[in-house]
Write a structure and sequence with these properties.
alpha+beta, six-stranded antiparallel sheet, 16 helices, 31% helix
Length: 739
């Protein structure tokens, strides 16, 4: 905000600064309309110096003699006090004829002003009024006028505090709260402000550790040379001139020094970090909680720690140091400063500073707690989603998750990709009803259940049936939708079962987008319903998109209209690529999210995209072998022939050894024919299946044991290996790198 131009203030009821903000003149009328108390920048509580502030003792005595009835000389005439920024318009003051300036011997002393009062404005002196007798009508009128003036100024202060606290309370985060304090205070209440907060800020019941450190979080209207404005403020109070100069200049001499034109938005002179020493003056002020003027005994030594030291440190009533106390402890401090062209603070302004500091501290506490809760909610949501997606053989995956809004980050949407035996992959997307921590917790339980059921290699409809039972065990109102699909890259087929979820969209390589027709089914948690699975073709190069309803449904459109928009968007995106190539997967996800308009984010969104590359039949070798003693040798010969056909003879020794060990273990316990399958992709994968459900375990064989070393060899020679239980038995697999 740009400062007002330099020069003596006008005597009108108000003036406008260069920034367009109405400022109160020295006559003290509140500038601008309150407009319901919302515009804080146009509201400034009137301030008037205390009687005798900045006067010599002799002047204060003369001032006190004028406080009852007759002023100046006892002629029964009430002399109005010159205004110093408080309420009251100059146009309301009675005109007076020019007269000679009073002297100290006559008992009349003029109040110090900032330059708009002259000797002609001071009424002539008169003999003192008689001590007895009824008050004159002029005295009664003057008393009534003072009471009305005080009442009006009190109302102005209340309206300012109400508007300022509402502005501070509007902030939801830390920066907005501190900004609200600064915007409400400058220039309506002070010419400059510094806001210090603890670093780091404690949260809730946390006990701070280490020394108390204050960090300058924000400052408004701080001068480039803060000592210049401080020196001018001190000169306005008559504290920078020697006694002789002060007497020569007179109590009504105009203040010297830089004007508001020197005020800028810099932070020069203010300490960025301040360590509050235990038992020091700043710690004493913060412990006292209440705002204090700069001339208070404790603040006189505490204020230099924040705005610098030296002879130019403000004192008197042109600076207020207000501690910021939250719900449990002091969390910072605010410093309010007024420049030389403005009246000093009044004692009632300490109450305003206390209100501003209290509401700011409570707002900071609220913002810190809200930030911690939002962080916990966001971490909870993120940890329940996959950190990274697997990259199974014959399939590429990409995903996106968007919360509903910054203020509601927790939802029940989730997605997952689970590798299955036989190079298959399970694709899952679901949506729990509601947006709360409970919804996120239920989502986590259902996702864990789906992973466990997928590990058992159950059909998709059976997985949804068990999820439905789990949701009913969690509660009667635990509802969710889910879509479960299993992709087989060898067979180029996909099996899908749906539980009340929006249908997936299949984008073919030629750019045609198709909404898959699958039974909708009932949501999970209804109970007593059957789920149906359908098997569809999954051609190579096609892309399957699974999503939640937040992507296609909003207040402006229904779900089927959104699905049609999604289909059109996919078709338009596919036209941007070559006809014989598929659209890149990651940019495709970003393009899909572009169908959301500015007002369409009513729900969180989970998106899972799967590109079906498949495995060519020429890269697959598959055999059924009877469980006989000669089966191990037969498996070695079949593996050697397949490697020769694929020009992978360099792997023959390792593959024959590992195949022999795994097949021998299967033959020992199997009763039905075993399966042997080799898959050539970027790696060579070998899978051996049998009808025994017990999974093998890696054990360290003793020196006297005749067996138990087969899996040890597999673990040492293979890049990866594992065993997965099936509904009909198990599959043991291992992988070797292909050069």
């Amino acid at each position: 905000m740009r400062p007002a131009a330099a020069g003596p203030p006008a005597r009108s009821a108000g003036r406008t600064t260069a920034a367009g903000v109405s400022r109160t003149s020295h006559d003290g009328a509140l500038s601008g309309a309150y407009a319901g108390g919302e515009e804080v920048e146009q509201v400034r509580p009137g301030s008037r110096p205390r009687p005798g502030a900045g006067h010599t003792p002799k002047q204060q005595t003369a001032e006190a003699s004028r406080g009852s009835g007759g002023r100046g000389g006892g002629q029964g005439r009430a002399v109005p006090e010159p205004s110093h920024g408080g309420p009251g318009s100059a146009s309301k003051r009675p005109s007076r004829a020019p007269s000679q300036p009073p002297t100290a011997e006559s008992g009349a002393v003029s109040h110090p002003t900032t330059g708009d009062m002259t000797a002609a404005d001071v009424p002539p002196t008169a003999p003192p009024a008689p001590a007895s007798g009824p008050p004159s009508a002029r005295d009664v009128a003057a008393g009534n006028g003072d009471a009305a003036e005080r009442e009006r100024r009190g109302g102005d202060r209340l309206r300012f505090v109400g508007a300022a606290t509402r502005r501070i309370a509007r902030g939801m985060d830390l920066d907005e709260t501190v900004l609200g304090l600064c915007r409400a205070s400058v220039p309506a209440y002070s010419d400059a402000i510094l806001v210090y907060l603890r670093d780091p800020l404690p949260v809730g019941d946390e006990r701070p550790t280490g020394p108390l450190m204050l960090r300058l979080r924000r400052s408004d209207r701080i001068p480039d040379d803060p000592h210049a404005m401080v020196a001018a403020a001190s000169a306005a109070d008559g504290r920078q001139q020697p006694d002789g100069d002060a007497a020569a200049a007179g109590p009504g001499a105009a203040a010297t020094g830089p004007s508001h034109a020197a005020v800028s938005d810099g932070t020069a002179g203010a300490a960025e970090y301040v360590e509050v020493l235990s038992g020091g003056p700043l710690a004493e002020v913060l412990r006292g909680v209440r705002p204090v003027f700069a001339d208070a005994p404790a603040a006189r030594d505490a204020l230099p720690e924040l705005i610098g030291s030296g002879p130019d440190v403000p004192s008197g009533q042109r600076a207020i140091l207000a501690p910021l106390r939250g719900r449990r402890r002091v969390i910072g401090a605010a410093v309010f400063l007024r420049g030389p062209e403005r009246a000093p603070f009044e004692p009632d302004d300490l109450l305003i500073a206390a209100q501003l500091a209290t509401h700011t501290a409570l707002g900071v506490d609220k913002a810190v707690l809200y930030g911690r809760e939002a962080y916990i909610a966001d971490e909870l949501q993120r940890t329940m989603l996959p950190d990274e997606l697997p990259q199974p053989t014959g399939c590429h995956l990409a995903s996106r998750y968007l919360p509903a809004a910054e203020t509601a980050r927790v939802g029940g949407d989730w997605y997952d990709a689970i590798p299955l035996p036989g190079s298959r992959v399970a694709l899952v997307v679901g949506d729990v009803m509601g947006h709360s921590m409970t919804s996120a917790a239920i989502m986590g339980q259902l996702r864990t259940t789906a992973q466990t059921l997928a590990g058992l290699d159950l059909p998709p409809q059976e997985v949804l049936h068990h999820l439905d039972e789990q949701a009913q065990r969690l509660g009667s109102d635990r509802m969710a939708t889910c879509l479960y699909a299993v992709y087989d890259p060898v067979a180029h087929r996909i099996i899908i079962a749906n539980a009340g979820h929006p249908p997936p969209v299949l984008l073919h390589r030629d750019g045609r987008a198709e909404v898959l027709r699958i039974p909708a089914g009932a949501p999970i948690g209804v109970g007593g319903v059957d789920f149906e699975a359908v098997e569809l073709d999954a051609p190579a190069g096609a892309t399957l998109l699974l999503y939640t309803d937040g992507l296609v449904e909003s207040r402006q459109r229904d779900v089927w209209t959104g699905i049609e928009h999604l289909r059109e968007k996919l078709t338009a995106t596919a036209r941007l690529t070559r006809p014989d190539a598929s659209a890149p997967l990651e940019p495709l996800c970003d393009e899909v999210l572009d169908i959301l308009g500015p007002g369409d984010r009513d729900d969180d969104i989970a998106l899972l995209a799967a590109r079906f590359d498949g495995i060519a039949p020429s890269d697959v070798a598959y055999w059924f072998l009877d469980p006989r003693a000669q089966t191990a040798g037969q498996a070695r010969r079949l593996a050697r022939r397949a490697l020769a056909r694929w020009d992978l003879e360099e792997l023959s020794d390792s593959v024959e050894l590992l195949v022999s060990e795994v097949v021998t273990n299967a033959v020992r316990y199997a009763e039905r024919p075993i399966t042997l399958r080799l898959l050539r992709t970027d790696t060579l994968r070998c899978e051996v299946g049998d009808d025994v459900p017990q999974l093998p375990r890696l054990r360290q064989a003793r020196a006297t044991d005749e067996g138990g070393r087969g899996l040890y060899l597999v673990n040492r020679l293979a890049r990866r290996w594992g065993a997965t239980r099936l509904s009909t038995g198990k599959v043991v697999w291992f992988e070797l790198p292909v050069n």
